[in-house]
Amino acid sequence: MRSVDRSFDDLFKGFGTIPIQIVRESRKWTGSRMDFSFNAKVGIVSTPIKGFVDVTDRDVTVDADLGWLERLFPVKQTRAALEGRVKGLLT
Questions:
Q1: Comparing C-alpha atoms, which of 74, 67, 86 is closest to residue 15?
Q2: What are phi and psi for residue 77, nearest 5 degrees?
Q3: Above 70 in pLDDT, residue 90?
Q4: How many CB atoms lie within 10 A of CB 34?
Q5: What is the DSSP string of 21-64?
Q6: 54 and 61 in contact (C-beta within 8 Å)?
Q7: For residue 84, which of 12, 21, 1, 5 has the smallest C-alpha distance?
Q8: Rounded to an integer, what distance in angstroms lies between the CA atom of residue 32 and that of residue 12?
């Protein structure tokens, strides 16, 4: 949980060559679940992102609504990028 909290911003900073700025971030832990929301800013436009992270002894589950960013990034590419970043937190 500490690793997720400490490195949360890095999870969503960018995919591929498109940098994403995180603004108006909110996160709240309830037990081992962190609910979050923020605006992802790409250039002059932004979109709200919201979701949760569940942490157990064996798994980290991230569920996020990426707003219009889902149209920019293929689902498989986004999932693979997030999985790689979460695995990097756990090593």
A1: 74
A2: -65, -45
A3: no
A4: 19
A5: EEEEEEEEEETTEEEEEEEEEETTEEEEEEEEEEE-SS-EEEEE
A6: yes
A7: 12
A8: 20
| E strand or H helix at 14 | strand 14-15
How many Cβ atoms from other residues are within 10 Å of residue 80's Cβ?
12
Please tell me the distance from the alpha carbon of residue 81 to that of residue 75, in angstroms, as a whole number.
10
Q: How many angstroms separate the Cα of 17 from the Cα of each of 7, 42, 57, 73?
A: 20, 11, 33, 11
How is residue 43 annotated by DSSP? T
**54 touches 30 (CB < 8 A):** no
Task: Kindly list the structural domains of the chain, giving each domain's residue range(s) and its CATH number in brackets, ordered by start.
Answer: 2-90 (3.10.450)
Q: What is the mean pLDDT of residues 63-86?
A: 74
Q: Cβ distance 30 to 60 under 8 Å? A: no
CA-to-CA separations, 61 to 31, 71, 72, in angstroms, rounded: 14, 22, 22
pLDDT of 15: 55
pTM of this prediction?
Answer: 0.74
